[in-house]
Amino acid sequence: MRFASALLGMLLFVGMLFSAATYGQNAGNSTKVTGTVTDPSGGLVADATVTIHNPVSQFERTVTTDTSGNFSIPNVPFNPYHMTVNAAGFAAYAQDIEVQS
Q1: How many angstroms separate the CA atoms of 92 and 75, rounded?
Q2: For the segment 32-53, what is each residue's pLDDT rounded down to a tens digit?
Q3: Dihedrals φ, ψ of 41, to 5°?
Q4: Span between the terminal Cα atoms of the chain, in Å
Q5: How far apart are CA 101 and CA 86, in angstroms?
Q6: Band of the pLDDT at 6, cuts 50, 70, 90?
Q7: How many CB atoms lie within 10 A of CB 18?
Q8: What pairs with residue 31 in β-bridges?
Q9: Distance of alpha carbon 83 from alpha carbon 88, whole angstroms
C-alpha cells in the first residue's frame, strides 16, 4: 500500500508540464498551452482533466486529454495560472504555471 500511496502522490507528469507553444513571433497577448499527461512510469494517461485558472482575472479553461495523453488549451492570455490535473485512479496533481511569450 505504501507504493500505491507514493504512486498516487506523484500522480502525473505533464510533458514539459505545459509547453506554452507560440506561433512564431506572436504579436498578441495570448498563446496555446499544450502538454502530455503521463503516469510516473511514463504511461500515457487518456481522459485526464486539465484545468488552468487565474484567480485575479477569473480566466478558467478545462480540457480532457486524448487517447495519447495530449491536451491543448488555445487562446490563453499571458498570466500566472494554477493548473490541476485529475484522472481516475490517481491523486489530484496541482502546480502553479506562468504563461508568457
Answers
A1: 25
A2: 999 999 988 889 999 999 999 9
A3: -90, 0
A4: 43
A5: 27
A6: very low
A7: 21
A8: 76
A9: 17
- How far apart are the C-alpha atoms of 80 and 73, rounded to whole Å? 15
Average confidence (pLDDT) over 78-99: 94
Identify the three-state secondary structure at position 37: strand
For residues 48-71, one letter each, b for 16 or more C-beta atoms within 10 angstroms of the residue's C-beta and e for the rest, the string is bbbbbebeeeeeeeebebeeebeb
> Which pLDDT does position 11 carry in this prediction?
43
Cell 487565474 belongs to residue: 54
Dist. CA 87–CA 101, nearest whole Å = 29
- How far is 77 from 98, CA to CA, in rounded Å? 10
Percent of the chain with pLDDT over 90: 64
